Amino acid sequence: MILVPRPQKLETKDAFLASKSFSVKTDSECISFFSSLCKGGEIVINVKKADYDTAEKYEIKIDEDAIEVLYADKEAAYRAYTTLKQIIASSEDKIPCLYIEDYPSIKNRGYMLDISRGKIPSLTYLKTLVDLLADLKYNQLQLYMESFVYEYKGFEEYWKDTQPLSEAQIKELDAYCKEHFIELVPLQNSFGHMGAWTAKEAIAPLAITGKDGKPSQTLNPFLPESLELIDKIYEGLLPAFSSKILNIGMDEPHELGMNETKEECDKRGVGNVYTEYLNKVIDLASEKYGMTPMFFDDIVFKHPEQLANIPKEAIVMQWGYETEHPYDRNCRLLSEHGLKFYVCPGTSMWGSLTGRMNNMVVNITRAAEIGAYYGAEGFLLTEWGDDGHPQMSYTTYFPLVVGGYASWNCGNHNNEIAYGERRAMLYAVKDYLDKFVYKSTGTSIADVVYRMGNFYILEELMFNGTQINQSLMNRHEINDVRKTEMRRIRKYMKEMREEIDALSSAEENVLDEIKCNCDIVVMLAEVLLGEYDKDECEKIFAEYRRLWKLKNHEVGAELFPDLVKGHFKQTPACNE
Q: In the predicted model, what is the mean pLDDT of the chain?
């Protein structure tokens, strides 16, 4: 029997319910959830409301002749339904008799998908993603926006050629999320990461001048027009969402303290300047739009004295993507200051193509364990789109399942116990992926995907990515150490490719996506070594484009291929 996430309490018996054909007896508010499990059989699923104080709490009791479900509220009934659906689907002929008592370790459990630096997903794909998130008991989805990926009212001339998501599409997705008890939370950056906006002639004067003498990606917080711009962006975006939470971003304003802002930042301190502007945006979101604002906290923790100046109504997003990130210290400080906060680990997929799987497991589980220990309001797993967002969905689903498991049932804050629990979790995650996502019909696809995502161990230590991607971005000739790494990686990934060729799946395009990401890593190694075949590269790019268009708008498909082709001019191909 496969159960992901694992329930808080599970007791099994040496007995079975020898039927997979059911009828349902329940109150009307929940009949639609459980009706899909029924085929008019004799076994009755009794669903009853119970007097629980804990939100989303439910119980499932399976005996030899009946199934009983007790639930706290309608959302809890839905969580019970997803568990029961999984039990039935993963059982062969007989369903085990058992008792489950379950509820979440963390109240809000979200997934954030970057749709601004390459991929703009289709509405059809986003609904497929919501289906998976709901089955994994996530209750929040955020779509990261920093460029013209939405049809902002009042900015039509900027997005008319970018194939954006429409207001109608966001509203349809919002409604679909609600049906699955997921909140679609708007995420709009409001300070740094505004390069798409500041590149426009009318907005460029609002940017801090960068080192290159051109308008940077960071707005000048001393100009009142900067806040007016953010107000206009919110006005054109927020009506599409029903959520009363707004993620205002606010991370990585790298140019703050440079050029136009240097004198005042030197006088008052970068931390003070940042927090003053942060509070203006928070006030805008809360007072004008009635939203609860949340923001990423990297600048605050560079200036920790500013924790005392964060409004209590805001939610602090404590983020970090490495195994050694100081979640323990930072969550403790946030808790001591009486601040509401989320923990925000990452999928470790960006800057790697196939992941940094060992890093991902520890990063996600530590964030959840420590967050729950210090009373985090929420958990948000972040999936960024650096370098054109070349990682494909079937490789990124591994960390998504880990995040669902870890945030619902966080495990133990004691590291000695936690590592054993993580190993058990990994086996369960692989089983879940093979049965419900990859639909493996032979050898485990999930195990191969996990090992494929550990090629980074063959490189020297690298922060927030892999050496191979860093070399791709830098576009300079690699040294002998890098060349040795590239040869190791090429050998390793070619062996992985042989394993993938022997796999089989009942789901269309699963193996095609995994093969393509594997081929790209091999190609990058060969390009950086100057040992590539241009015709073979073009074949890989053609497959990459084909797979891209199945789930995403066509725009952005050339960003990553163009990055790779930048190296073609530096190093001739073997077949030239």
A: 94
